[in-house]
Amino acid sequence: MTMKKVLTIAGSDSSGGAGIQADLKTFQELGVYGMSALTTIVTMDPKDNWHHHVFPIEISTLEAQIETILSVGIDAMKTGMLGSVEIIETAAKTIKESKIKHAVIDPVMVCKGEDEVLHPETADALREVLVPLATVVTPNLFEASQLAQTKPIKTIEDMKEAAEKIHALGPKYVLIKGGSKLKTEKAVDLLYDGKEFKFLEAELIDTPYIHGAGCTYSSAITAELAKGKSVEEAVDVAKDFITAAISHGFKLNQYVGPTMHGAYRTYGAGRTKIEQ
Question: Dihedral sign, CA of 30, 14, 178, 186?
Fold first, then answer.
């Protein structure tokens, strides 16, 4: 059997729970071969309440990484933290020139634990340059409101409105992650293909240990697309994968706790399947 190959263009999380570390762990768990092109290195300061510091990678170094990976060949790719307009343009160029069938865009705008957009101009570049090329774009509620240029999303109807506006930008599918922020009884995500709204529900897990959840979710979708699943099938598996990972999240230190990437394989996961 030929191993499917997957690329992540994203940042490095030195604490290991998010970014390319989460991506590569997820790829491994789901049986695809992961390769990575680093855009940034993110560190956390234990002397300053785990405050994040972001160190961008030279664009020439990013391009050299991508050239290496494309020479091998890829079956799907995803993006995570990109951090600058130039990097976003490089990711878009990679999608176009590789003629890759599936690109999952996780429009990362903030570091977990931070509350400001890393570079406000990147939201515009994501909206105009990269999101239109996506097979699936996977914003959380904050990112969805930024992409859709709407008010903060607080209800299911707000999610639908944002999904329509994001879909109009050009992606084939929009997956808005409600998670624990939506104030619903279940962890509800919305998948929209331009015609139908479909909801994915899971048990709402009361835990602070969700570091890297967004990266992990989008990575699982990418892995399943590489293996030949449809978007709906890939999202469904990914929802199970992230539900298991969150269910078995753990404390890393007094500041953060990551999801457990091996939980889906080790423990399995049950939840309500995708519904219209």
Answer: positive
